[in-house]
């Protein structure tokens, strides 16, 4: 797939050939690149609604998304560092955090740029629903002040749990998504 993950797919059963169609039952597992250990999930069978008005149908199970999440988590894809250089339009400084958290204001009288380290602390959980899917991510964020000599000083760490719903729709032959933060 990319530098972090690979997909292995194989037939679950022999193809079923009928007059109007062929049914291929593939099982796809996503692994961290170069690490083919079995993920801690069990694939559950699922059925695709019987429709015949399109030429091609694709269905992805919760298992596919779970193994994808596990592979990217294992590869460290959910660990992100945001610095002033990588995200200049935010312009976050200790002054902003000092107005919210009084202890930061006491520590940092002079405004310094900050660096944010975001990391998932557990494998994100992906659940499929009838018209959307949800993603629950547990993580932590550590905030650092970047001092004039380019060293960093930890200001605070906070734990984060985010639960979002994502609905996909096709508009004008384009796949569009809408994101809703549940909590």
TrEMBL record:
A GO BP annotation: defense response to Gram-negative bacterium
The keyword Signal belongs to this UniProt entry's keyword annotation: yes
Species annotation: Columbina picui (Picui ground-dove)
SUPFAM superfamilies: Bactericidal permeability-increasing protein, BPI (SSF55394)
All copies of domain Lipid-binding serum glycoprotein C-terminal, residue ranges: 50-183
Gene that encodes the chain: Bpifc_0
Subunit structure: Monomer. Homodimer; disulfide-linked.
Name of the protein this chain belongs to: Bactericidal permeability-increasing protein
UniProt function note: The cytotoxic action of BPI is limited to many species of Gram-negative bacteria; this specificity may be explained by a strong affinity of the very basic N-terminal half for the negatively charged lipopolysaccharides that are unique to the Gram-negative bacterial outer envelope.
Comment on protein domains: The N-terminal region may be exposed to the interior of the granule, whereas the C-terminal portion may be embedded in the membrane. During phagocytosis and degranulation, proteases may be released and activated and cleave BPI at the junction of the N- and C-terminal portions of the molecule, providing controlled release of the N-terminal antibacterial fragment when bacteria are ingested. The N- and C-terminal barrels adopt an identical fold despite having only 13% of conserved residues.
Pfam family, one: LBP_BPI_CETP_C
Subcellular location: Secreted
GO cellular component: extracellular space
PANTHER family from the UniProt entry: BACTERICIDAL PERMEABILITY-INCREASING BPI PROTEIN-RELATED, BPI FOLD-CONTAINING FAMILY C PROTEIN
A single MF term (Gene Ontology): lipid binding
Keyword hit for Signal: yes
């Amino acid at each position: 797939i990319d530098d972090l993950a690979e997909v292995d797919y194989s037939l679950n059963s022999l193809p079923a050939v009928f007059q109007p169609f062929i049914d291929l039952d593939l099982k796809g597992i996503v692994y961290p690149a170069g690490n083919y250990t079995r993920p801690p999930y069990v694939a559950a069978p699922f059925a695709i609604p019987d429709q015949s008005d399109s030429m091609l149908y694709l269905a992805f199970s919760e298992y596919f998304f779970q193994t994808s999440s596990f592979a990217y988590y294992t590869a460290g894809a959910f660990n992100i560092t945001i610095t002033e250089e990588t995200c200049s339009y935010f312009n976050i400084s200790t002054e902003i955090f000092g107005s919210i958290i009084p202890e930061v204001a006491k520590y940092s009288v002079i405004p310094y740029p900050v660096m944010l380290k975001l990391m998932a602390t557990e494998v994100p959980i992906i659940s499929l629903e009838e018209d959307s899917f949800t993603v629950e991510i547990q993580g932590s964020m550590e905030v650092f002040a970047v001092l004039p000599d380019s060293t960093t000083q930890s200001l605070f760490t906070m734990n984060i749990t985010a639960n979002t719903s994502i609905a996909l729709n096709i508009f004008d032959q384009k796949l569009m998504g809408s994101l809703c933060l549940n909590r």
